[in-house]
Design brief:
Distance between the termini: 96 Å
Structural class: mainly beta
Low-confidence stretches: none
Largest sheet: 9 strands, mixed
CATH topology of the domain at 43-142: Immunoglobulin-like
Oligomer: single chain
Radius of gyration: 28 Å
Length: about 160
């Protein structure tokens, strides 16, 4: 003998089915949001066709010599010269079209005679390109505490 659900039970079953369907409809895969962020300890800047990535300064202490670390990428169709460094003494760095120039002790070296901020603080850098424009940027100052930077910090 098969029992048919009562009218009340059928309504309850129908309501539960509709509620389940509505709840599951919201469980689809949402479009992901792409967020750009510096992948390391430095900061990034986009200036026209120039992309500056992971910029940071290494020094042992405030007013000691320092070095700039990072990368400059020219996404444009013509070569450019980028002047980068402390505002009073930037260094000119050529960057070919559609290429990246690495900055650091094992690559294109940009030495800073005296870093006006202690490790843990920020220091202002100026970036000026003959093609992409100019900007100033606050970058972190680090010392050799992190093993990756220990051998790269200039000695006073």
């Amino acid at each position: 003998m098969t029992r048919t659900p009562s009218r009340g039970r059928r309504r309850l079953l129908a309501a539960a089915t509709l509620a389940s369907a509505a709840a599951l409809a919201g469980c689809g895969i949402a479009p992901s949001e792409i967020v750009n962020y510096p992948a390391s300890d430095g900061v990034d800047l986009t200036l026209g066709s120039l992309q500056a990535d992971n910029l940071l300064v290494l020094t042992a202490a405030e007013n000691d010599p320092g070095t700039l670390i990072g990368a400059l990428t020219n996404n444009g169709d013509q070569a450019m010269t980028v002047k980068i460094g402390l505002p009073a003494s930037p260094t000119a760095v050529p960057v070919e079209a559609h290429s990246t120039t690495l900055i650091g002790p094992q690559h294109t070296t940009i030495d800073l005679a005296s870093v006006p901020a202690a490790p843990g603080a920020l220091v202002e850098l100026s970036i000026d390109s003959d093609v992409a424009g100019s900007a100033s940027l606050q970058v972190p100052v680090l010392d050799g505490t992190l093993p990756d930077y220990a051998t790269l910090v200039p000695q006073p």
